[in-house]
Design goal:
Helices cover 54% and strands 0% of the residues. The chain is built from 8 helices and no strands. The chain has helices at residues 20-45, 65-69, 77-83, 87-106, 110-128, 150-163, 173-178, 180-184.
Length: 189
């Protein structure tokens, strides 16, 4: 018995391009990708929103030090504080933001992006640990929901974009899937 691997082309009829649903998923994909790209650009250049210019990565700042260094909740607070500002944590974080942002915005490599972005979002969820109502100092944690927060929503959006082939509408998903490397390595779709 032979096992036939399905390709993106096999699923092309799953969601007809040009339908309202396909366009809505494309909007979800693009806006989610732009969230990751914006975070990357703001941390890289210090655009003055979440990151001031003097704390920009290109100016010697650390993309992870502010967020992870301020972790005061959850069972992993000291572990996250310990890696805050480490060169490898900065590089992994920035490569993750850029890679997921570019791929999702363009509609390519959505499976890999969904996995990488979901891992990133779950780690950030753990760092903010919304299950705790109080910080280590006894102050309110300001958690608005103990389970579902924006990190979970972004992870779900990445997964939905991948499983619905949202890169085929207003993206380069079909062209990406047609590349010989991607044809041989289906996990790259």
């Amino acid at each position: 018995m032979s096992v036939r691997h399905t390709t993106q082309a096999d699923h092309a009829t799953t969601l007809a391009a040009g339908t309202t649903a396909a366009r809505a998923l494309a909007v979800l994909r693009i806006t989610t990708g732009l969230v990751f790209l914006w975070a990357f650009l703001d941390k890289l250049f210090g655009l003055g929103y979440a990151t001031a210019a003097e704390r920009a990565w290109i100016n010697g700042g650390s993309p992870t030090k502010g967020f992870l260094g301020g972790v005061e909740v959850g069972p992993f607070d000291t572990a996250f504080q310990a890696i805050a500002g480490a060169w490898w944590a900065n590089w992994l974080f920035m490569l993750g933001l850029a890679g997921v942002g570019i791929a999702v915005t363009l509609g390519i490599g959505l499976r890999v992006s969904a996995v990488a972005g979901t891992v990133m979002m779950l780690l950030m969820w753990l760092a903010e640990f919304p299950l705790d109502r109080f910080t280590a100092a006894g102050e309110p944690s300001m958690s608005t929901n103990p389970l579902i927060d924006y990190h979970i929503i972004y992870a779900i959006a990445l997964i939905v974009a991948a499983v619905t082939y949202a890169g085929n509408t207003w993206g380069l998903g079909k062209q990406w899937a047609a590349l010989p490397l991607v044809q041989r390595q289906q996990w790259l779709i």
